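Training component of the fellowship. As part of building independent skills, the fellow (R.M.) carried out the full modelling exercise for a liganded target. The chosen ligand was 4'-deoxy-4'-aminopyridoxal-5'-phosphate. The inputs are recorded below so that the supervisory panel can assess the work.
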Amino acid sequence: MKIENPNPIQWQFSERAQQLQSSAIREILKITQRPEIISFAGGLPSPATFPVERMKAAYDKVLSETGKQALQYGPTDGYAPLREWIAGYLSTPDCKILPEQILMVSGSQQALDLLGKVLIDEGSKVLVETPSYLGALQAFSVYRPDFHSVATDEHGLVPSSLEGLADGARLLYALPNFQNPTGRSLSLERRRELVETCARLGLPLIEDDPYGALSYKGEPMPRMLNMNPDGVIYMGSFSKVLTPGIRLGYVCAPLPLVRRLELAKQAADLHTAQLTQMVVYEVVKDGFLDEHIPTIRSLYAHQCQAMLDAMDEHFPKEVTWTRPEGGMFIWVDLPKHIDATKLLDQAIAARVAFVPGAPFYANDPATNTLRLSFVTVPPERIREGIAVLGKLIKDQL
Ligand code: PMP
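Fellow's submitted model of the complex:
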């Protein structure tokens, strides 16, 4: 029996909820999913790389052999064999990572939320790159920090710009490998300088690294984590090396912090799906990623090159862009007077889409920037879409 509602609820949302906004990208993606549009907008990995059969076999094996355990509640910190595997994966000869330092999370996006929850109070000073990963800005924003932007140049974050800026800051959030959105990477010297500077200033450094394994040359750069495991918080993800739909990531942090993160996770969702963790352990434990990741790298490298070649051919000389050596994104700087959001309207009318760069800035957005992703579009469509974009840009010069 349905009860009458004589007094309709006047929802009183918390101040926090009133401030929540949908990410600009998710809104754009709704439009760009139409099949006639050549979309360089998405940040989605290529489904061609998803190891469906391998996952299917692993689900089958885990459910047949250890189904009761896989379908039960599990510990908050995660499935122990997988945490051990990750600790081994992150260890180097002179820096051993302990399984106790690893907390499994439901996508590394959850690590951003948990880090915000345990490290940020309202008004806390939080340092981010210019530009930075939009999803991190969104996750931290819930805790109402005061964002300060750290300078970047064509080589990525500029460590010397932290002097003075870091006073009283709670953390620095950095993306050293094939950054989302710019595709830029920090050189080895810059990594060392950054880790040293943060250590000297007593500033916790978050190293968000979902793309590090996708180096086209196949030689991943050293992690900052291994340069200073007491000062660096490392975030990893299975989204770009297996599949994002399983929502599995991890954070590696110094013990006092990881215990706090664990408490925050316990309150949020008890634990990450046990079945998923057991399946991923089954998939990775015998070295599957060593054969799988090179196939992702070569696909992305090929498509990245197709896009760079098309840009060389069709973009006017007034436009500049990054030349990534891994990952999924190219970043474009247009002449100052061109507003990428307006350009997007014209591009969509011409059936091409990208993401304007402005939402990736915590402060002072550069409206003449945009992000292109090449991973889900085949080379001939890349050439077609870039030719259209090049013409639209030239028309505005
Ligand atoms: N960090 C960065 C830099 C990302 O680009 C993404 C996903 N696009 C994430 C974190 C979140 O990844 P996931 O939650 O799928 O692990």
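The panel noted the following from the submitted structure. The first helix runs from residue 15 to 19. The chain is about 40% helix and 15% strand.
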